[in-house]
Design brief:
alpha+beta, GIY-YIG endonuclease, single chain, 3-stranded antiparallel β-sheet
Length: 85
Amino acid sequence: MYHLYLLRCADDTLYAGITTDLVRRVEEHSTSARGAKYTHARRPVELVYSKKFRTRSTASRAEYKLKQLSRDEKLALISFPQKSG
């Protein structure tokens, strides 16, 4: 199982990624040197959105689409998350 996730950083920016272990990855972004360089300088981070996918391929495509959204569109997604079907 893969997770697409969106983090809100301390400077109010947003960061998107995919992982197989959501809890571990958010912890890495928050405290570890294994977190992304981007989030390392913007700690603490908060998980604001996640969605499960069965394959890495579908998660990666969804991550690409998410990263193409404007900030306002991402904030709307956080405010009104779609139900998984």
